[in-house]
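notes to self, project folder thing:

trying the whole complex as one job this time. last attempt i did each chain seperately and stitching them together was a nightmare. two parts in total, labels are on each line so i dont mix them up again. if this works i'll redo the older ones the same way
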Amino acid sequence: MPTAMPRVTIRYFASLRERLGRAEEVLDLEGIRTVAEVWARATGEPLPANTLVAVNLEYADFSQPLRDGDEVAFFPPVTGG
Amino acid sequence: MTVLVQETAFDPWEALASYERSAPERFAGKTGGAAVFVGSMRDFNQGQTVRAMTLEHYPGMTVKYLEKVEAEARARWPLLDCLVIHRYGPLQPGDPIVLVAAWAAHRDAAFSACRYIIDELKTRAPFWKQEQTAAGRRWVTPEGSGK
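result (full assembly):
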């Protein structure tokens, strides 16, 4: 039995979710490792300015390496309160 | 110390009264000051009439960051208690969106902590406002200092 490919769950919110036309997807980490690489592979688009990222509900850097089972979320600047 | 993220509409003054009634021993005689901030939905923004609003959020992360900001405030100032309530979902003009309350023995800690919590949650808690105007729907962009 080959080992299962490590994969991450990606979530998109607000204007980013609407523009990409999806809220969530799962991506194999085949040949890629960082948040920035996940964005590029999943969307095929340049990163919009000011995009924020969270890994497992914590703000993260785009250079952060990912592991199997991580949840990565991309979203625009927040406007609560 | 309580943080609530809810879709249900709430009356901030009733929420405060019932919170104090729920644990009178925590407040009576000890509280020298309570500072309260209530943020509500305006019917105008950037020169346009706003008919309604939808507040999207990242379930799990919002609660986590509100609790984080509240814990930072408690570490910085001697607080007796804090209450934070934040709505999500559909909102109408006039609806309360957020309540931040800080109780302390002295006013400086109460004012400072309340201010810190609302300012920090506005830049870190993952909520996004979408407004409905006569021209259609639009995502709100950060307003800077909001002062």
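what i see at first glance: Chain B has four helices and nine strands.
need to look closer tmrw
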